[in-house]
Amino acid sequence: MKISICGAIDSTWKDMLCDEGHTVHSIWMQRSPYLSSEVLSLAEHHGAALYFRRVNRTDMLEMLNDGVRLLISIGYPFLIPSDTPLWGVNIHPSLLPDGRGPYPIPLIIQSHGECAGFTIHKLSPLFDQGDVIYRERFAISEHDTCDTLLFRMYMHSSNAMRNIIPNIECYWAAATAQVGRPAWEARRFDQPFFNPNLLLEDCIGMCRRYGEDSTILKVSDLTATVSSIQGWKEAHSRKPGTVISKDEYRIVIAVMDGFVIIRYKLI
Fold it and tell me: Which fold would CATH assign to domain 2-174?
């Protein structure tokens, strides 16, 4: 099948598309300073056009004329038109309707573990409200992080699509409406900043909730992303935020009830 993709894929998606003999017509992404090697490799393999802008209705009608039958959205932040004859689905990292919104995984880890998993649903005029084509629940443990849930979603959704794509007409006809109001939503995502005025457990939990390189560290003249946080409890009289030690990769900072070692990357 000829497919267009909105968002970013990983190697499990690339392998699935190639193994199953699908053709990628185009890839639509949000502009970013980082471009995955898997996206580049997929585009080169299929001769697919790369667009760094929001896809619109005219684009979708042109896709139809070029023989595209299915548009897949995964990790794409923009609302996609749903009023064309093109089949369009979105992969969302929660069990909808709970967890509607742009970034539910931190809240899933923090307090809504029962919603871990993903939903494949039809595109709709409102975000994350389309009829459900497929759901899969994840059991999570204390070892799961934002990154593990994200990559589990990629791995399991690509595997599910091996069966869904060739049978899309049947899945489309059998899709079910989302019933009831969501118990909770994730309507906003503000880039988290490391806050030393927290207890050690909460500081360490930031990386688990938000993932590697998602938290911003701003200390004196240093602005960086946080790759990992470790630490220990220890009574002290230092002001939270005091820098104890620093090199080009790590910084040790006092927090409310101890100290943290942060591995960072300069922005």
Answer: Rossmann fold (3.40.50)
C-alpha distances in Å from residue 8, one per residue of 36, 75, 144, 182, 193: 8, 6, 22, 27, 25
Query: Residue 189: its pLDDT value, please?
Result: 64
The 10s digit of each residue's pLDDT in 16-45 is 999 999 999 999 998 877 788 889 999 999
β-pairing, 222-233 vs 258-266, is antiparallel
Distance CA 145, CA 101 (A): 19
Please tell me the distance from the alpha carbon of residue 234 to that of residue 239, in angstroms, as a whole number.
Answer: 13
One-letter amino acid for residue 176 of the chain: T
SS3 string, 45-83, reads: HHCCEEECCCCCHHHHHHHHHCCCCEEEEECCCCCCCCC
Instruction: Please count the CA atoms within 13 angstroms of the CA of 234 that sit on its side-chain side.
Output: 11
Average pLDDT, the chain: 94
* Residue 38 · residue 14 · CB < 8 Å: yes
Distance of alpha carbon 232 from its chain centroid, rounded?
30
For β-strands 132-137 and 117-122, DSSP reports them as antiparallel
Query: pLDDT tens, 46-73?
Result: 999 999 999 999 999 999 999 999 999 9
Q: Which two tokens mark 43?
A: 């585009």
CATH 3.40.50.12230 in the chain, residue ranges: 2-174
The secondary structure element, H or E, covering residue 118 is: strand 117-122
